[in-house]
What does this fold into?
Amino acid sequence: MYDIILFRNMKINQKIWIIAAVLSFVVLTLLIVFEVRSPVLILGEPSFIELYGKNRIRSESFRSSLALFRYVKIVDVANNAGDDAIQIAIADASSRPFCVIFPFRFASAAAIYSEQNPNISVVVLAGRHSIENAPSSGQSGYFIYKTDIEADFYRAGRVAAALDMDNNGKTALFLERGLRLQAEQAFSRGINKQESQMETHFFSSFSDFYTISGFSCVVLAGAGFEYIDENHGIPVILFTWLDPSMLPVDVVMVIDDSPLAQAVHAVTLAAAGEKDGHIGSRFLILDKKRINWRIWRKINIDS
It folds into this structure.
């Protein structure tokens, strides 16, 4: 009997070793493939890196690298770098990247790089800027994508409504003038999706804010940033790239349309050859008591 048990244990151990060897081989193969695949490069200046947060950049790059199964690297270029210096910085980072992502302020350098490297995908992330006069390239691998303003402000409206918790309060939305019509309509659709209609006041500057009171939520999207310098105790939804650790406790959610937040979607669109693309922002919950997983799940389902 003892010999039989010993024999069975040996067979079990042998199977375990075989499975472990196969898994080790698969993992090693995946690591080798990951290492040799051409990277995705994202241009960023020191000012952006400091404001976004170095630890946050590392975590976002790691997350994006896993999602794309290839390295996602930041190419650090000077704040005032010229087009030629940018070409050199990219070449130093990788001789043949899979895709290079340029913030909109580097659009001219992106067009030059695309002309010089027609077989490499080049993506310009325009954010909420107008792209009517953006530099163009004759190459098929050149893409300009905008932030999905309607989707972002609709979801922001849904969050604002959830924060009100049926108290029929008022919401203040500060907007830069160029976004006014499109953002207002999308936000109003989102905040009024619930049965009780909420009152929303739109501002383009902070100076008019104190003429109205009784707000249950404040949304800052390109204007009114002076508001967060004061502690009002009212939940704030903030459209920003800033590292959340730099923000006051009133900020309950950050809506981030930075190149790092949009990288995975941008590369996926470019790989599919999609010329006209709109990319939603990353919604980061900072106060999980006010916006818990049930509320967030319902917002995502309804959106």
Observations:
- The first strand starts at residue 40 and ends at 44.
- The domain at 150-257+284-302 is CATH 3.40.50.2300 (Rossmann fold).
